[in-house]
UniProtKB/TrEMBL annotation:
Protein name: Coproporphyrinogen-III oxidase
Domain Radical SAM core: residue ranges: 45-282
PROSITE patterns: RADICAL_SAM
Record-listed S-adenosyl-L-methionine 1 binding positions: Y54, G111, E144, I328
Catalytic activity: coproporphyrinogen III + 2 S-adenosyl-L-methionine = protoporphyrinogen IX + 2 5'-deoxyadenosine + 2 L-methionine + 2 CO2
Length: 451
C-alpha cells in the first residue's frame, strides 16, 4: 500500500507521459525536415544494406471507441483503392532513389486495418514493395490483422505474398467490456482468424490485449488472459489503455466513471503478468511477453532489444522507412513524418514528391539521450560506459544526471558503478523515469538543459 502511494505520487499511469517509441517524440518534430531532405536521406542509404519498411493503411470498417490510432472509417472500397494507387506510386519513387542491392529486414503493414484491403490489392502492393526492396535473408513480413476483417481469400493473399508474422487485435474477451469500449469480437471469431493464420503456415503470432479498461476486474482480466493463452500466441502486447478523449474524440463514447484507478490498473497488470510468466513467457520491456524461442526474447537476452515506432523490436536495420499517410521514418540523420491527412499525402505523391511534412534532425545530444531512454525502456538499465564510448557523453554530466534522477525517484532507481538501473519495484514508473531524461519535455519547453 505504501509502495503504491509512492508510485502514484511519482506519476504512475499519467496518460500524458510518452511511450517513447522515438526520441524526441513526434510532438517535437518541426518543419525543418521536408520532402527533399527525406529524399536525400533515402539516397544516402548505403548500397547493399538492409532497411525496414512500415506501410500505414489509415482505414477501418468500424471505428472502435477505445482506439487512439490515426484512422478513418469507410464502408466503401473507393477511398482504399485510391489510397492503394498512391502507395504504389510512392513505392516507385522509393525504388528510383534507393541505391542498388538494398534489401528488406522487416516489412510491417499497420493501421488502421490493412486487412480491409481486398485480396487483389494486397497482392499488388506486396509485389510492388518487393520490386522496390526485395526481402533479405531471414526477413520478416508482418501485418496487423483485425479478426473481424479477414477471410480465406485475403489470408491466402497475405500468406502467398510471404507473410510470416501475424498480429491480431484482441483487446479483451469479456462481452460487457467489449460493448462499453465499442469493440465487439467473439472468442470464436478470434479463434477462426488464428486457425486461418496457422493453417497457412504463418510461423509466428502476436496478439494485442489491454489492461485498464472500464469494468475490468482482476477476475475478468484473468479470464481474458487464459482465453488468449489457449490460442498459444508467440508474443503478446499487454498495453495499458490510454484514455485520452481530448486527442481521440471517439473515446468520449466511453464513460470515464468506470475506469480503474491507478492502483487498480497496477493490479490488473500484475494479474495478467503473473499468468503469462506462469505459462512460460518471458517479460519484455514494459508491456510485452514472448515465448523464449521468440525473436524478442532472444534479443533481450543478448542485450539487443530495441524500440521503434511499432514498439519493441529485434530489428537492427539502420533505417526504417515509412510509406503512406502519417508514417514516420527513422534514419541515422533524423526522423521524417509524412503528411497526416490522406488528401495531403496523395496530393504530394501526385505532384511527384514525397509528402514529408515534419521531422527532426538529430543533434549529438539527441542521439545520446535517445539511446539512454531506449536502454531504460528495453533493459531497465543504462550503461554509462556505452554512452561515453559510443555517444561522447560527458562522464561528469552523466553522473550528475543520474544523481538528479535518483534524488527525484528515490529508491525507484539505483545508481550503480555501471550506470543507472530501475529495480523491479520501480518498473511501473519506467516511462516517467525516461521522461526525466527528455530534454524536450513539454512542461519544460524552452529550457535546453532540462534536468
Ligand atoms: C492500430 S491498432 C490496429 C489493430 C487492428 N486494426 C485491430 O483492430 O485488430 C493496434 C493496437 O493499438 C492498440 N490501441 C489502440 N488504441 C489504444 C489505446 N487507446 N490505448 C492503448 N492501446 C491502444 C490496440 O491494442 C490495437 O490492437
Ligand atoms: S482498433 Fe483497429 S479496427 Fe478498431 S478503430 Fe482502431 S485500428 Fe480500427
Amino acid at each position: 500500500m505504501e509502495q503504491e502511494s509512492q508510485l502514484t505520487r511519482l506519476g504512475l499511469f499519467d496518460a500524458r507521459v510518452p511511450r517513447y517509441t522515438s526520441y524526441p517524440t513526434a510532438p517535437h518534430f518541426s518543419t525543418e525536415v521536408g520532402p527533399s531532405l527525406f529524399a536525400q536521406w533515402i539516397e544516402a542509404i548505403p548500397a547493399g544494406s538492409r532497411i525496414s519498411l512500415y506501410m500505414h493503411v489509415p482505414f477501418c470498417r468500424r471505428l472502435c471507441w477505445f482506439c487512439a490510432c490515426r484512422t478513418q472509417g469507410t464502408q466503401s472500397d473507393e477511398p482504399v483503392r485510391a489510397y492503394a494507387e498512391t502507395l504504389l506510386s510512392e513505392l516507385k519513387m522509393l525504388k528510383e532513389r534507393l541505391a542498388p542491392g538494398v534489401t528488406l529486414s522487416r516489412l510491417h503493414w499497420g493501421g488502421g486495418t490493412p486487412t480491409l484491403m481486398p485480396a487483389d490489392m494486397m497482392r499488388r502492393i506486396a509485389a510492388a514493395v518487393f520490386d522496390a526492396v526485395p526481402m533479405g535473408e531471414g526477413a520478416e513480413f508482418s501485418v496487423e490483422i483485425d479478426p473481424n476483417e479477414i477471410d480465406a481469400a485475403r489470408m491466402d493473399a497475405l500468406a502467398e505474398s510471404g507473410l510470416n508474422r501475424a498480429s491480431i487485435g484482441v483487446q479483451d474477451f469479456d462481452p460487457q467490456i467489449q460493448q462499453v469500449i465499442g469493440r465487439e469480437q467473439s472468442y470464436e471469431v478470434t479463434k477462426a482468424a488464428v486457425d486461418m493464420i496457422r493453417d497457412r503456415g504463418v510461423a509466428s503470432l502476436n496478439a494485442d490485449i489491454l489492461y485498464g479498461l472500464p469494468h475490468q476486474t482482476p477476475t475478468k482480466i484473468a479470464e481474458s488472459v487464459q482465453k488468449l493463452l489457449s490460442l498459444g500466441p508467440d508474443r503478446v502486447a499487454l498495453y495499458g489503455y490510454a484514455h485520452v478523449p481530448w486527442m481521440a474524440r471517439r473515446q468520449t463514447m466511453i464513460p470515464s466513471d468506470h475506469l480503474p484507478t491507478p492502483q487498480e490498473r497496477l493490479e490488473l497488470f500484475e494479474v495478467a503478468r503473473k499468468l503469462f510468466v506462469a505459462d512460460g513467457y518471458d517479460e519484455i520491456g514494459i508491456d510485452h511477453f514472448a515465448l523464449p524461442t521468440d525473436g524478442l526474447s532472444v534479443a533481450q537476452k543478448a542485450g539487443k532489444l530495441r524500440r521503434n515506432f511499432q514498439g519493441y523490436t529485434d530489428d537492427l536495420a539502420e533505417a526504417l522507412v515509412g510509406m503512406g499517410a502519417s508514417s514516420i521514418s527513422r534514419f541515422p540523420q533524423g526522423y521524417a513524418q509524412n503528411a497526416p491527412a490522406t488528401g495531403a499525402h496523395t496530393g504530394a505523391i501526385r505532384d511527384g514528391h514525397f509528402s514529408t511534412a515534419r521531422g527532426h534532425v538529430f543533434t549529438a545530444e539527441d542521439k545520446m539521450r535517445a539511446r539512454l531512454i531506449e536502454a531504460l525502456m528495453c533493459d531497465f538499465r543504462v550503461s554509462a560506459a556505452e554512452l561515453i564510448a559510443d555517444y561522447a557523453a560527458d562522464p561528469a554530466e552523466l553522473a550528475a544526471m543520474f544523481r538528479r534522477c535518483a534524488a527525484k525517484f528515490e529508491d525507484m532507481v539505483k545508481v550503480t558503478a555501471a550506470g543507472l538501473e530501475i529495480p523491479e519495484k520501480g518498473r511501473p514508473l519506467t516511462r516517467m523515469i525516461a521522461r526525466h531524461f527528455d530534454a524536450y519535455d513539454l512542461s519544460k519547453a524552452g529550457h535546453s538543459s532540462a534536468i
